[in-house]
Amino acid sequence: MYSLQKYKGKNTRHTCPSCGQKQSFTLYLDSNTNNPIHRTVGKCNRESKCGYHYTPKQFFIDNPSFVETWHATSNILNTTKQIEPPQPPSTIPFSFVERSASYRSNFVRFLCEILTVEQMISIGENYALGATQNKEVIFWQIDIQGKVRTGKIMQYNPETGRRLKHESGAIDWVHNKLKKSGTLPGDFNLQQCFFGEHLLKLYPDKPVAIVESEKSALIASAVFPDLVWLGAGNLNGLSIEKAKVLKGRNVTLFPDLGAFSKWKEKAQMLNSLFPSPLGEGLGVRCSTLLENEATDTDRINGLDIADFIIAELTSKKTSQEIQKIFSQKLQSMIETNKGLLILIDGLELEEIQPYQ
What we know:
By secondary structure, the protein is an alpha+beta fold. It has helices at 56-62, 65-71, 76-79, 95-100, 106-114, 117-127, 174-180, 199-202, 214-223, 240-243, 260-273, 289-293, 296-301, 305-325, 328-336, 339-346; strands at residues 2-4, 13-14, 25-30, 35-36, 42-44, 53-54, 130-131, 137-142, 148-154, 172-173, 208-211, 228-231, 251-253, 284-286. It is globular, with a radius of gyration of 25 Å.
């Protein structure tokens, strides 16, 4: 049998591989050997905030090569049958996704200011964005089988693209609203998946990129469509349970500034569980792109890849607008000295074309 207990007189509570909280993770031990099964097999005690629970049975299903090793020292084949199988995730009818489909959210309104029509169409087709009557955006979590796990409801400032974090802009969930209305049962078993996970099946040959937020995944996918962009949901959203769908894929993680070390550890852990396909490619790696490009101010503000892309897109758009409005000579002067454009706007100056 397996149990959550002490190991050689020492408490088995360690750092949770999912949420990263120290002293919150209890390992499963083989009662015959009193040894931990694997450093990822256990339960996080922060059930309301993390909920990570990786059982021995699930571990051996995911890693059949370990069975023979453990069978040599433990009655593994008999004891695994006594472990209760994990409950399947509950799902939401796809009709709710269809009914919510809309570009009329404040978030999409912001995107329209920085992206082209073609890019917006691509986002809409791939990620099935929804909107509420209050112009909140709905980020639907659709798993690799096309099943709807839930929808994340968020409000954004249409001018800045920043999420509103005050009370009226707090995060809400579709499954919570449907439970309150009686549409879903009270024992709805939520198991979140990656935002955009369904795209893994649609694009089986594309490399995968993972970022923290849904916003970053959407904006990056519009600019770099050759990758499948997934959103983990938050800093601690890159869990082993979610990552099972990444088996056989080449994956690059793009952590926000300030999260590189934590996600680098996650990359190492995932590589040990999900090695590179056929021994080729990169497996799971953590990109240093933002770390190499960021200034001290960027690090203090904890910018993500979307912030860098938005800045670049805004800069290009400004350049295009300058090209349309001013002569080539004045445009060159403005490119050399950005302050000149501020002076022109502030004094409402107009360029006078020479008499032909």
